Amino acid sequence: MHLPKAELHLHIEGTLEPELAFALAERNGVALPYATTDELRAAYRFDDLQSFLDLYYALMAVLRTEEDFAELVDAYLARAAAQGVRHAEIFFDPQAHTARGVPIGTVIEGLGRALERSEETHGVSTQLIMCFLRDLSAESALGTLDAAKPYLHRISAIGLDSAEVGHPPAKFREVYEAATALGLRKVAHAGEEGPPEYIREALDVLGVERVDHGLRCLEDPELVERLVADRVPLTLCPLSNVRLRTVDTLADHPLPAMLAAGLHCTVNSDDPAYFGGYAGDNFDAVRDALALDPEQLRTLARNSFEAAFLDHDEERRARYLSEVEAYAFD
Ligand SMILES: [Zn+2]
To answer: Is residue 270 domain-resident?
Structure first.
């Protein structure tokens, strides 16, 4: 739980807890189809992807103003900091907000306002990763990148998320090329529901530096060999995999085999308000369900800082890594 770690796969919209959803709904005059926080919390116990996505997009309606986005970030950072997160690279989905009439500047400035004070307020360094919804068109992604240009000083990287199957990475070649030209770094979800081929495409066509999830690489031994040789980080999300039925139970999770194969695995929370836990909860859960020993947990934490986009501040990375080495398990 308290082992120092970086969180590299976290959707800020997925951190909206029922209490904050109700508070924002009231402030913004948005009607929620739930009478109480308990009723809403019960709805968070969905058991398939579609019921998750329905709730996820419905609740976003409460996010309207810069202040709303700033409060969402602050609430996440407080929870993450309490669970040992020292550095967070945070995804957001601008199209999910612009589609309901919230300007992209409101989203980015609101998130950015909270992030720029996060070290002071929470002791967590941060970066922002702008994700494109892959079930929308490539043109929509290009338009979003264009609309984000006045705010690029707040953004480190781009990513690709939402429903994977039927939306291969190559669909977004052009927007990834444009982002590269703008100096942005690149990640993408691949190989969660989609086949190993999507992971290859993300690497070869989009030029991603990390693969989000990447679980299905295990079906392709040559791909595993390549990921190991190139030390490509995979941002795994174990509790998310269980809730979305990517694995049957946590005890079935291939994390130990992936570590043994030499894959550069990290453990993250994905959409923690919905999937049953934040970063530290995920560490505790895999330790218990998979009997990971302290050195395996330390490797996961070390991997997270090595995979972080901290190239501009190697001194900070070294400091975080020494915190990992110094951590005493009780
Ligand atoms: Zn994700």
So the answer is: yes
pLDDT given for residue 186 in this prediction: 98
Find the domain containing 223 and state its range: 5-310
252 is in an annotated binding site: no
Mean pLDDT of successive 10-residue stretches along the chain, which has 330 residues:
98 97 96 91 82 88 98 98 98 97 98 97 98 97 98 98 92 98 98 96 98 97 98 98 93 97 98 96 98 97 98 97 96
How many whole angstroms from 326 Cα to the centroid of ligand 1? 30
Please tell me whether 97 is known to bind a ligand: no
Q: How far is CA 166 from CA 66, 176, 200, 227, 327, in A?
A: 34, 18, 15, 23, 43
Q: Given this model, what pLDDT does residue 46 score?
A: 82
CATH no. for residue 294? 3.20.20.140
Q: How far is the CA of 330 from the centre of ligand 1 (A)?
A: 31
| 93 known ligand binder | no
pLDDT of res. 5: 98
pLDDT reported for residue 116: 96
Helix axes 66-82, 104-116, angle to 10 degrees: 40
Residue 329 is assigned to a structural domain of this protein: no
CA of 245 to the centre of ligand 1 (A): 14
The C-alpha angle 83, 86, 88, rounded to 5 degrees, equals 95
C-alpha 83/C-alpha 88 separation (Å) is 12
Task: Give me the pLDDT at residue 48, please.
Answer: 75
Residue found under tokens 């060999």: 225
Domain tally, the chain: 1
Q: Is 270 annotated as a binding residue?
A: yes
The burial of 149, by beta-carbon neighbours within 10 Å (0-12 exposed, 13-18 middle, 19 or more buried), is given as exposed
Whole-model pTM over 0.90: yes
Tell me which residues are annotated as active site.
192
User: Ligand 1 centroid vs 229 CA: distance in angstroms?
Assistant: 25
Residue 317 resides in a domain: no
Q: Is residue 264 part of a domain?
A: yes
